[in-house]
Design brief:
Helix content is 45%, strand content 22%. The longest helix is centred in the N-terminal third of the chain and has 31 residues. The termini are far apart.
């Protein structure tokens, strides 16, 4: 039986269209209820409509994320062509992303701060890095410091820019480890992680979790690498 792999992007695109239309209608009617001056809502009704509108807005956002995945998988997404320093971008986001809440988990930047130049879509890459950093911080249940360390790596294929995200004591072990799959199935982040991996791969890069770091959960670490033209 044929697998029809090429049908997947079309099916996802159709699903996006079918979800977007009713979600937009519901959102519109909820806004009309909120603004109705002829028959104003009670405070209890207003609160329920507000909560329904927030949930509907979340559904609309998820549909938008599905659309992004569909376009990236079909390779129809238009990536901007801008000059980007991957290390400068990582440093910027390491200073602004904090998802630790009351767990006293901090993210610090270490290593090379500039020189990893490439061409790409800085808006999408900024969102991808932010999602990965947030996902790692959310995995930490106790006070610790997570490092986002930038390094250059020279291989037979050329030079790469590598960003290692791990507990500061485990950065070297994560860097030396064998690559394993990065777990994208994490609650609370919507589809940000599946999008992040696709965006990185669309720029010729790779995202993985270290597979064999002793006494460490690979979900709490990530390695991002991009090839650089010399």
């Amino acid at each position: 039986m044929p697998t029809h792999e090429n049908d997947y992007p079309q099916l996802l695109s159709l699903a996006v269209h079918e979800f977007r239309t009713p979600a937009g209608v519901v959102s519109g009617y909820l806004r009309m209820l909120q603004r109705d001056t002829e028959h104003p809502l009670t405070s209890r009704q207003s609160k329920m409509v507000d909560e329904a509108e927030k949930s509907c807005a979340r559904l609309v956002a998820l549909v938008g994320e599905l659309s992004e995945i569909s376009n990236l998988d079909a390779r129809t997404a238009r990536l901007a062509q801008q000059s980007i320093d991957v290390f400068a971008l990582a440093q910027e986001l390491a200073g602004s992303v904090q998802e630790a809440g009351d767990n006293d988990v901090h993210l610090e930047f270490r290593g090379e701060s500039a020189g990893a130049l490439m061409t790409g879509d800085i808006t999408r890459l900024r969102a991808a890095f932010s999602a990965i950093f947030r996902a790692i911080l959310r995995e930490k249940a106790s006070p610790c410091t997570v490092a986002a360390e930038c390094r250059f790596k020279q291989t037979g294929d050329g030079r790469s820019a590598v960003v290692v995200v791990a507990d500061k004591e485990s950065v070297q072990a994560a860097y030396d480890s064998q690559p394993g799959p990065f777990d994208e199935k994490r609650g609370g982040l919507g589809l940000a992680l599946p999008i992040a991996r696709r965006v990185i791969e669309a720029h010729g890069g790779r995202l993985w979790s270290p597979a064999n770091v002793p006494d460490r959960d690979g979900r709490g670490m990530a390695v991002i690498a991009f090839p650089l033209s010399e």
